[in-house]
């Protein structure tokens, strides 16, 4: 009998209504639609504009719809993990706020901050609680409100990021489908290339940090770009090798959506058929912890039980890795 795995039994994505187009960005910074499209693949991104709304409000919408869609009683949820770098507050965590706002009373929750790899790290963490037999119903949320930490006068970053994400329900599966294997890596020396300088214990907020615009995303794109392709390709190869798979065995590659040239580079280096690569960066930009669940949500109608999916990510930290799962419905 196959061992007990954790499978995704439902997915719900969400993006806020407001769409920030490349044309609109042209009026805000010295950029143009042609540069953004050819250098990143992004045409538009969604932005949370409603005053007073934050990460937990997006999480609330996703989780409520997920519970409804999967006909799950909130009382049965035992754990909620929220993967984000833009939680409502530095503390407390956003997962518990989502539980409070959705009427999930019997769960404990915590956040995972692993930037663009957050959702993958959270998915595997949640899966372990199910594989071990500890829990039967776990929700993993991956979302970000990147607009809250973006300087809309900095053309190097403001054209890239957007808001949104998704939530999945994990349940036990003994039919062989579910989350099978993950290879994860980290390299703290990468933090110099992608970070927010102030607001943490290193540089608490002050007039000076505000004046120096240190509460926004800083990115030195080129080194991140190179490391992203290498990290994703190597971790995909590692997972393929460990599981005795070839590229022909894989039905879908689900890459973090940071740049279409990174996605194409990864697919080309592995000689992957582009038809099998999920891409929606043109509509949402880079939503950090939100890109992978947004892909799964959009492709959900096309996915078939038993499909082999490779989810891969690279992000701030640096953090990166690949998860292999078999779709369960
Ligand atoms: O998700 C987390 C991980 N993050 C990533 O994976 C992101 C990885 N990096 C990237 O995707 C790319 O490096 C960027 C999209 C951030 C930048 O693209 P690039 O091809 O590396 O451009 P660049 O920074 O080398 O800039 C090339 C030129 C420069 O002009 P000069 O010096 O050649 O005259 C920039 O000043 O493009 C200029 N430029 C722009 N021009 C128009 C930079 N940003 C813009 C812009 N519009 N928005």
Q: TL;DR of this structure?
A:
Helix 4 (94-102) links the parallel strand 4 and strand 5 (108-112).
Q: Can you give keywords for this protein?
A:
single chain; 329 residues; alpha/beta; Peroxisomal Thiolase, Chain A, domain 1; 33% helix; binds oxa(dethia)-CoA
Give the topology, please:
Blueprint (H helix, E strand, L loop, with lengths): L4 E10 L3 E4 H7 L4 H8 L3 E4 L7 H15 L9 E5 L10 H9 L5 E5 L5 H14 L6 E8 L9 H4 L4 E11 L4 E9 L7 E3 L10 H5 L5 E3 L1 H22 L9 E4 L4 H10 L11 H4 L6 H9 L8 E8 L3 E8 L3
Parallel strand pairs: 4-5, 4-6, 11-12
Antiparallel strand pairs: 1-7, 2-3, 6-7, 8-13, 9-10, 12-13
Helix pairs in contact: 3-4, 8-9
What does this structure look like?
Helix 8 runs parallel beside helix 9 (260-269). This protein starts with a strand and ends with a strand. It contains 11 helices and 13 strands. It has a 5-stranded mixed beta sheet, with helices on both faces. A 4-stranded mixed beta sheet has the order 8-13-12-11, with helices on both faces. A two-stranded antiparallel ribbon has the order 2-3. It folds into 2 domains: 5-175, Peroxisomal Thiolase, Chain A, domain 1 (3-Layer(aba) Sandwich), CATH 3.40.47.10; 180-326, Thiolase/Chalcone synthase (Peroxisomal Thiolase, Chain A, domain 1, 3-Layer(aba) Sandwich). Helix 4 (94-102) links the parallel strand 4 and strand 5. The longest helix is centred in the C-terminal third of the chain and has 22 residues, at 221-242. The protein is α/β, with parallel strands linked by helices and 329 residues long. The structure holds oxa(dethia)-CoA. Residues 31, 35, 39-40, 116, 155-156, 159, 221-222, 224-225, 228, 258-259, 262, 286, 314-315 line the site of oxa(dethia)-CoA (UT7). Residues 31, 35, 39-40, 116, 155-156, 159, 221-222, 224-225, 228, 258-259, 262, 286, 314-315 line the site of oxa(dethia)-CoA.
């Amino acid at each position: 009998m196959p061992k007990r795995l954790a499978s995704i039994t439902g997915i719900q994505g969400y993006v806020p209504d407001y769409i920030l187009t490349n044309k609109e960005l042209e009026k805000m910074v010295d950029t143009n639609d042609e540069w953004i499209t050819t250098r990143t693949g992004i045409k538009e991104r969604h932005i949370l504009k409603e005053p007073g709304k934050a990460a937990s409000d997006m999480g609330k919408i996703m989780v409520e719809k997920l519970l409804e869609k999967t006909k799950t009683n909130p009382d049965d949820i035992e754990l909620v993990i929220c993967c984000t770098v833009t939680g409502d507050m530095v503390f407390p965590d956003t997962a518990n706020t989502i539980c409070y706002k959705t009427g999930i009373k019997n769960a404990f929750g915590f956040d995972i901050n692993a930037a663009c790899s957050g959702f993958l790290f959270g998915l595997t963490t949640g899966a372990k609680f199910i594989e071990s037999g500890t829990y039967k119903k776990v929700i993993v949320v991956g979302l970000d409100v990147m607009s809250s930490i973006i300087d809309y006068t900095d053309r190097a970053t403001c054209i890239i990021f957007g808001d949104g994400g998704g939530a999945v329900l994990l349940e036990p599966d003994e039919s062989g489908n579910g989350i099978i294997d993950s290879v994860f890596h980290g390299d703290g020396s990468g933090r110099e290339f992608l970070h927010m300088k102030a607001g943490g214990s290193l540089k608490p907020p002050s007039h000076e940090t505000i004046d120096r615009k240190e509460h926004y995303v800083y990115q030195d794109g080129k080194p991140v770009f190179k490391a992203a392709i290498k990290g994703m390709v190597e971790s995909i190869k590692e997972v393929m090798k460990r599981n005795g798979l070839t590229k022909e065995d894989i039905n879908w590659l689900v890459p973090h959506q940071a740049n279409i040239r990174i996605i194409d580079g990864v697919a080309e280096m592995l000689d992957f058929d582009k038809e099998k690569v999920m891409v929606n960066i043109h509509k949402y930009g880079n939503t950090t912890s939100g890109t992978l669940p947004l892909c799964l949500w959009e492709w959900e109608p096309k996915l078939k039980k038993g499909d082999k999916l490779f989810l891969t990510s690279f992000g701030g930290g640096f953090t990166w890795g690949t998860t292999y799962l078999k779709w369960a419905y």
